[in-house]
Structures are given as C-alpha cells and as structure tokens.
Protein 1
Amino acid sequence: MLRYIIRRLLLFIPILIGLVTMLFVLLHILPGDPARLMAGPFANPDVVETIRQEMGFDRPIWIQYLDNLRRLALGDFGRSYQSRRPILADLIEVFPKTVQLALAAEVTSSLIGIWLGVIAAARRNGWADRLIMTIAALNLSFPLFWLALMLQIVFAVSLRLLPPSGYGAGFDRFVILPAITLALPSLGLLARITRAALIEVINEDYIRTARAKGLQGTLIMRRHILPNALIPIVTTIGADFVRLLGGIPMIEIIFAWPGIGKYAYDALVFRDLPALQASVMILAVAVSAVNLVVDILYAFINPRIRYV
Amino acid sequence: MKRNALSPGVENQIPLLGIGVILVFILLAGFAPYIVRDPTQIEMRREQNGRTITPPYPPSQRNLFGTDQLGRDIFARVIFGLRTSLIVGLLVRGVSMVAGTLLGLISGFFPRIIDSVIMRITDIMLAFPVILLAMTVTAVLGPGLVTVCVALALVAWPDVARLVRGHVLSIREQTYVEAARCVGAGNRRILLRHVLPNCMGPIIVAFSMGIPGAIMYEAGLSFFGFGIQPPTPSLGSIISDGRGYITTAPWYPGFPGLVLTLLVLSVNLVGDGLIDALNPRAAKAVDSRTSTA
C-alpha cells in the first residue's frame, strides 16, 4: 500500500514538469511584453528596460525556462508580475477559500443526492421515484455559467435573499449560491448511483432475512442497505469532487469568489506567468491528490481490493 | 441495473425525443437565413399602444424571445448562435475523436515506451483545469471560431485516447488477432481491420457523449470573452451580453440559456440511448468530464 502511494506521488513530478513547460511555451507565444505590462502604459523606456533586466526577461528563452524550473524545484514560486507580492503568500491566502467552496458544494450535493437516491430506491417505481429520476436526468445538462446567472437573478435580484457575489467569512451567506450552483449538476448523478446501488442491495437475501425477522424499514435501510451500497456511492462522490474542482474556476469568476481559480484567471488576463503556473500546479496537484485519496478510500471500504 | 425509473416502453421513446429536438434545431440552424430575420438589424425606437418605447423590447409576436438593448431580435440571434454551437460541437468532437482514437490505438498496440509517452501526455492534459487551458490556448491563438475548436479539441482528446487504449489492450489478446498475425497480417492491417472495428461501439458512444461538453465549453469560453467574437453569434456571448440586463430584461440572458440547455439535454438523451443500445459499460467513464462547463 505504502509503495503504491509513493509510486503515485512520484508520478506527480513528470505531470508538473509537463504543465510548467506547456504554460511556459504558451505564455511566451502570447503577444505582449511582460516588462512593459509591469511598468504600466505610461512608463518611460528606461524604466521598462530596468524592469526587463531586473526580472531577467532579457536572457535567452531557454535559460529563462531552466531557471524557472530550477526555482520551482526548490519550492520558490517567485513573485507575481502583477502585485509584486511573493506568490506563495497569495496562494496561502486564496487556496483555503477554494477549499471552503469545494467542501461546501460537495457536502451539499452528497447529502441531498444520497437523500434523493434513498427516497427513490425506497419508493421504487412510485411517483416520487419517477419525479426524482426525471429531474436527475435533466440536472446534468445545465451550463454552469447560465445556472449561476439564473440563481443570481432569482435569489439575489428578485427575492433579495442572498448576496449575488463576493466573499464574506467563509461558511456564511456568501457561500450558499456558488456552492449550490456547483452542487446542482452532480445531484442527479449521485441520486442515480445511490438508487441503483441501493436497489442492488435490496434484492439480496440478507435483506429479506432482516425483513422476515421483523426489523423496521428505516432500520434496515440504515443498518443493512446503506453500508453495503457505500462503495459505488463513495467512488462517485470522489469522481464528482474532481469534476467539481474542474468547474470551480468558472464559478469563482462569476461569483467573484477570491479563490485559486479566480487568481489563475486574473493571472492569465494579466499574462502573469509565475502566478498562473503556480496556481495551475496547485489545482492539478489538488485534482491528483483527490484521485489518490479516492483510490485509497476505495481499498479501505472494500477489503477485497489490494494494490501492488 | 436500470438507470431510469420510467417504464421500459417510455424509456425507449426518450432518445427519440432527443433526436427529434436535435433535428428541429439542425433544420432551424441550417435554414436560419430563410426562417428568421437579420440578427444584426437594429431598432432603437418603436411605437406601441401609442407610446414610444426603447429596447430591450419584451417578447411579443414580433420578437418571440424579445430583443436585446439594440432592438436586435434575440430569437434570430439564438438561431444563428445554435448554428455556431452545432458546428463547434461536431467539429471539436470529430477532431478530438480522430486524434484520440489514433493515439489510443498506437498507445495500446505498440511497445511500452511509446505507450508510456502518450499516457504521460494524457496525464498532463487531464491534470490541467480544462477551462483554464482552453482560455490560455485561445488567448495565445487569438479568439475566434477556429481557435476555439483547436483549443477544445486539444483538451478533449486525452479522454478518448485512454478509452480506446483500454479496449485495445483487451482486444490485442484475443485469439482472432493472433490468428490474423499467423496468416501474415501486418500491424497496420490488424489495427485497422481487426482492432478498430471491435472498438467502434465505445467510440460511437464517446463521440455522442462528448458533444455536449464541447458545446458547453464553447459557450463558456464565449461567455468569458475568450471564445467566438462578434459579429459571429454564439449562445455564450449572447448570455454574457445579457448579464447587465438581468433585472430589466430577464428574457435576454434567459432564452439563449434555455435553448442551450435543451440542446445539451437532447444530445445527452441520445447518448444515453446509444449506451443502452450498444451497452459498452466502459464508455460511461467518458461523461464524467462533460458537465463541468
């Protein structure tokens, strides 16, 4: 198990080098002179030249590339072109906010999704089941940015219940709309998987035994059905969390949530290579780490699976 | 395992409904210039009930979806935007399928070194946040229809390559491949005549399941100004233009989004139908990334 984890962690290294290389190439093709951008539109040429030398933009491109890699390998993210602040300090500030949003969204979608799935499975083929499954099929199809806009119209503009965008103190009124927007598209999938997993377990002999010995319906569901149906549900939650991390930059931009996705977007708009590569690296590591944790969790829940 | 609660008879009808909607959309988009009026026609003043009103005009018989702030007909703009969406969806998915299938075939069939190189590249691409990568690529190439297609095809092929490789790995060990080799077939012949046809089921499903993702990412890119540029209409940029009018003219961002949702939903329904019809279980893994836009 430990060897498996170490091997997976080692795989991060080529992925990160690849990401950095790709971004470096892409941002150097981008038209525009970073020194001029940093100096501002009205700076005189001397200032631009000084900045160029200070930041090393006058060196050959492959030396800039190797220097960039060397610094990253030493854990030095550099300074942002835009704010001139150390990027590490920025990241320490923005990353927890993204984690807050992601957790709020995932907890929301898991709780509601599983609950809907349980109801659908318990009243199989009844009207509640049909209604939930029909909505579940529709859910996946909403474009996130449009969903966000519509929720803003309804809850912030018309009903004035919630703030349309911004950041408060983490888990407060501000997190509700972005979290729900992120959670809604996964509700359907979770409800579907939960329902299918439960129904498979319900048809097992030991459930009939439990029922035959007179156990109550809710108790059977809690004690016997849910635990045994957990494997596909947990796997789905893991995969869903990865999907959610992919959608997070978009949501952060729309809701002005000052997380790492918005930070990366701002960096891209400003052609801030060090800030962009650092935030993309963190996001990529986050996605890979979630994948790894899911695989490990999977082995714990289902002892039949062993990794070599 | 049944995925749908509806009775079997109704369940079989649902993909047909999706096909119907898609056909209507294709017809509307295809014959757009003959059906709707000029989407660029501006109308800054209008007489109504004896009063002069200014745009955006609410939905009426004349403007089914209302108009925007310049008095341009939103229905016409949506229909032309639908055109863009359909072109991008098919083109992006087509290109990424061909590239992904080729690389998947090569990766699954040829020696380990080539396989690892291709798979490490897919690792890198899959670790990249999709929307940020697409934005970076369109920023580099300059926004527009072609660059959006390039950017989205670039982010979409790794999924396909993985899927195809997985199937090739199992097919490679089949007896009929061994038999083909024994009678002297070369690598190319085995790949194209024996391996590829046996991967076709999952490939077709992946093709249809990937179209909604491409359509939504195009709309997302255009929404953020990284995609299709005016005057080419795109559903994403219409919605983005309408953001400022959500209080005064909710129909402005509302209807384009509804049409986009309906289009994506229909393609999804057809994809679900294809899965049921062809039943390649592994292909379902593909749709995990399609809904992030």
Protein 2
Amino acid sequence: MAEQKTVTFIITRQDSPDSAPYKQSFNVPYRKNMNVISGLMEIRKNPVTADGEKTTPIAWDMSCLEEVCGACSMVINGVPRQSCAALVDELEHPIRLEPMSTFPVVRDLVIDRERMFDALKQVKAWIPIDGTYDLGPGPRMPEKKRQWAYELSKCMTCGVCLEACPNVNDKSNFIGPAAISQARLFNSHPTGEMNAAERIAGLMEDGGLVGCGNAQNCVQVCPKGIPLTTSIAAMNRAATVQSFKNFFGSDNAH
Amino acid sequence: MAENREFFTRRLHSLLGVVPIGLFMVQHLIINHFAVYGEESFNKAAGFMANLPFVLVLEIFVIYLPILFHAILGVYIVFVAKNNVRRFGFVRNWLFYLQRITGIVTLVFIAWHVFETRVQVALGNAEVNYSLMEGILDNPVMFWFYVIGVLSAVFHFANGLWGFFVSWGIAQSPRSQKIVTYATLLVFLVVSYIGIRTLITFAYGV
C-alpha cells in the first residue's frame, strides 16, 4: 500500500492573552480538497505534534465556512485571509498559520476583533428605525444604487484590511478602513442618509478618517473586493464639506 | 472645532504642505535656477527676494511657522506608522513608506540648509549670493547631500500633493487617483530637474 500523504502545518500558538507565543508543527493525513480548517480539525482529533508530543488542540474561530462571516481570518503563509477559503492544494507547504497581529490574541489563532465593532459604533454604522410609532415604509432605493451599495455591504468585519494597514497598530487610534466604508454604505441608503451628518461626525472624531495615510493596502487585500480607498476618499470629501458647513454655518449641516 | 482637534490638525498639516510650503519650495528652486544663466543673474534675483518688503514677516508666516508645524506633526505621524512593505509590497505602500523616509531626510536637510545659509546671513557671517552657494557645493560631499536633500524634498512635495488630492476628497475615483499619480510624477520630474540643474551649476560652474 502506498504511504499515506501528509500535510505539515506550522502554527504559532499562544496559551493565554498575556503569555508568549510559540510554534508547533503538525503532520496531518492528506485528503482531497482540504481547506485549512479541515486540517485544523484533523489536529483537533489527534493533537500530537510532528515530534510525537501530545499537546492541546488548536483553538481557532469559525462560523459560516463560506467566506461571509469573517470569523476565521488568520495569517496563512504570511497573507491575512479566511482559513475556510484557503485550500490546501493551492498553498505553499509547509503551511504556516499565525493569528492576525493587529488584534489581541485570545488563544492560539483566536483573536479579539472588538476594536472593529467599537469603530462601527463610533461611526453609527446602522440605520435607526426604532420609534414610538410605526414610521412607515421609508423612501425607495433606486435599483442601480442598490446594486452599487450591495458591493459595500459585502464587508464581513473580517479584519484583513486592518491587518494590512500600516496605520492601524498599537501606537495609533485609527479605526481602520472597514468602518469608514460602512459609514459610506449607510450614508448612501435613502433612510440612512437622514443621519448622514452623525456618521460623518463620528468619522471626524479622534482616530477617524484622518488616521488614513493612503498606503492603500486595504483595497488590495480585501477578500470581498470592496473599493475601500474609494470609500475613504468619498468620506474625506464628505468630511471636508461637513467641516466647512460646521465652521461657516449652513442650514444643511443637520 | 475644538472637539475635533486631530481632524483639524491633520487637515491643516496636509494643506500647509502644499500651501504655502510646497509653493514656496517650487518658487525657491525656480529663483535659484537663475544661477544657470550666470552669477549676476542669480545675485539679482536672490537680492530681490532677500529685500522684499516685510521680508521677516513673510518668512515667519509663509515659511518658518508652517514648516515648524508640518515638521513636528510629521515626525509624530512617522512615529505612529508601522511600516510593512516587506509583507505588502504594493506600489502605494512603498510610496507611503518613502513619504515618511523623505520627510525625515528633508527635515534634516532643511535644518542644515537653513543653518548654513539663512542663520549665517542673520548672524552677519555670510551674504546671500552666488559665491556662498558655490563655496558650499564645491565640496563633493555637500553636493551629494544637497542632491539627496533636494530630491527628498521634491518627492515629499509631489507625493504629498497626491495625498492632498485624496485626503481632501478631490480625487475620489480610482481613475482620478491614478491620473493624479501621473500628474504628480510629472511634477516630481520637472521640479527635480530644476533643482538639480541649479546644484550642478553651483558645484561645477556649468
């Protein structure tokens, strides 16, 4: 019988948020059409390192397994991406897995993306429709615009753009590209635009838009192909106009 | 405005880099280019600039204060970036990195250049004329220091001009940003030529 083919994973692990990271190698039996997550599941079945040492199973985050939830992002062979969509057959071997460095590590490959959700709160990336009475159906959205906005709505808060951005790090308070693009999405919605000025105000707070240094890595790495740099420039323009309205005065400053 | 200090200071930083600092630099290099047409022609032009009415007020508000603000905030901006060109070797990321490197190089160059020329003139140790620059640039080390300094400053201005167009939201679409990239590349080439050509005249008399 032919020898069983194996896949080698070199994984950067960390036992707790404050402990030091270390590397472990694992050989897992190869199966056809494996993705990185199925490799991690194999390790979980039999958590023994390549040196034959018994260890704890790897911790990682995942949910949808079809690249729409953003939970399973990690750095695979140096590239931040979703592990569900990373096919073993298409990767260089051995496969190196690391947690995304921009975010605090919870354990092994699990990171805490809370700063992204805080950023969404800062720019009020939602449409307030709650009231004490039925507010009615709201204005209609042209189909053309809906199709355009759909592209922006693909953001899954996966954190890959923040990982690639040189200005998102522990020395800066920049909220990152994702939330800026979301503010643009909700500002272009016919109901959402009623609160456009509030979102722009969020973008003009500390850590907002001006933290962008136009390195434009975000748009290159976004797994959903969202035009993030166009969104940033669009919100830059909106903030310019808003700041003039605020300073010189305008009845349309809201 | 008080509650959006970072927004205000960063936008001001971007604006000051172009107006007045960038405009001053281009004007400065063009006036210096008179050197290429002969010593007398340079001395006449430099003398005109040095004897402008209210020259000290002009210098303080058009040059010193804007540059000081731009430099101090700029060093902070350099400090808060975590450059990653090795992981993400995209052109724009390199330009982002170079913008920070040339910013620091330009700061060192300008400090040296101002000390050697304007400060010495103010102290009465030198006079603004052709022979002052000839004396400095005669030394090959200084010549190459000036070449690097001028190229850094011009790159920082041209790329910063691109950043200005994006940061103020003038160039939004990828196409317009690309065309502004080419336009600012042209600015870099033309202004660099003007600056370097002058340095060659001072150093080698040709």
